[in-house]
Amino acid sequence: MTLSPKNSTMPNTHQKDGFTLLSHWGLILVEGPDAATLLQNQLSNSVLSMKRTGLGQIAHGSDAVRLAGYCSPKGRLLASAWLGLFPESTDAEDRFALFISKDIAASIAKRLSMYVLRSKVKVVDVSNDWDVFGVYEADQEQDTLNAPNDSLALRMPDVLIGDTSFQRMLIAQKKSESIESIAGQAELARWNSLEVLSAIPRIVLATQEQFVPQMINFESVLGVDFKKGCYPGQEIVARSQYRGVVKRRLQLAHTASSILALDLAKPGVELFHEGDATQPCGMVVLSAPNPSNLDHIDFQVECKLDALEAGEIHLGKSDGPVLKIDSLPYPLLEI
């Protein structure tokens, strides 16, 4: 699938496939001989020995695509990003692309740049110069995804909705008047829904420094490498894992759609248990209306485990909309 030129139309049948501009996603490029060393010392996942992916090719698999977190010294996630290694040519220096929430891209690029010092690497937030697109396809017997020749593209994990498996891909391309940069509402709604239902979290400005990685299952979706060397917050992340002190986890949930629920369905909104109206028991990580069930809003929520044992959990306030907890699509990592 390629991006469409302006004034063309892209047929979409029952939202089984589509592409959309992701204006809430940004892009950071980290380039130079020391790029891998810089990121290895800063991120929660290893970037060493990653497979190079050429322009127009699609990074796919754990050797070419990594999910990684960027933590504060206290072990709290400042950012999460999907990474690929995309040199400009076969003999060019390393260039890592970090697909990241746009509202934190500039601050994260600035923070990474603080650690460059004498290293031969440059860190640039190119979110205003590149567009990020999301592509999805359903129930393909063969892998039919493809990307424009001058783009950076990576496959994200598939998402199973009922009996339908959706392939997903992120594409970054320099802004151009020849490329349509309009988000189709139906396609964007489907993409956002798939992201929420994947149960793979994404940090945004409203949730910065709210979670240790395990609190949102980041280790269980392969965003943490416990065998790599040190990085900011590494000791706290490791202690949380090996001493078994994780008392909060990411859950999938839904609530009936209403004006109030839609207003409260935002990252950073707190959750309350009916047994304690004064203290929040969790927080919204991501949310999206369900395009297949217009009466539902789906959520990723971080929540105290003991709050799940009995009683109702409310969105936004003690008498807010009731959240119903759903099953995760993956097992939690056991050490």
Automatic annotation (TrEMBL):
UniProt keyword Nucleus, yes or no: no
Keywords: Transit peptide
Database matches in SUPFAM superfamilies: Folate-binding domain (SSF103025)
InterPro entries assigned to the protein according to its UniProt record, in alphabetical order: TrmE/GcvT-like (IPR027266), YgfZ/GCV_T_CS (IPR017703), YgfZ/GcvT (IPR045179)
Biological process according to GO: iron-sulfur cluster assembly
PANTHER family noted in UniProt: TRANSFERASE CAF17, MITOCHONDRIAL-RELATED
Cross-referenced NCBIfam families: ygfZ_signature
Name of the protein this chain belongs to: Glycine cleavage system protein T
Source organism (scientific name): Polynucleobacter aenigmaticus
